[in-house]
Amino acid sequence: MFRTAQVITSLNSAIGRAVSWLMLGIVLVQFAVVILRYVFGAGSVWVQESILYMHGFLFLLSAAYALAIDAHVRVDVFYRDASPARKALVDLAGCALFLLPMCAVILWHAWPFVQISWMIREGSRETSGIPALYVLKTAILVYAGLLALQGLALMLRAAAALSGNAPALETFARKEG
Asked: Model-level pTM?
């Protein structure tokens, strides 16, 4: 159980670290756009849209990594001072009652839009824009899937901690809230 959680977390960590490089890409491309526009008087819709795509991919594909490293915003009125077992129980309940249903709703509602987008090979509204909007829309499904997987990993880790698994319990003891 705990091993499965570690594998899922490793996957999401690798994806999160890889897509974090998109931030550098965003900065460099935005810098190039500014130079092209104000120094050379030129612009490119495709290049400007690429910034939006990178931004979308960055946030959609790194959300599960943020959950893995406990970087999401949390109202920690009670959580911070709770025992490791209570933290595990809160995380287990939170994932089961809120996170996984939210991911299911996102998948359920996004699927038809992504499917249609792929069928028509949806592209930019701009003639010189990126002709692959369907790829960006697919990232919404990947986002919900990776987040659900990480939620499952968190639930497995919490269940292991509640059943007395020392390494799992230690992960909740280190959490600050």
From this structure: 0.90
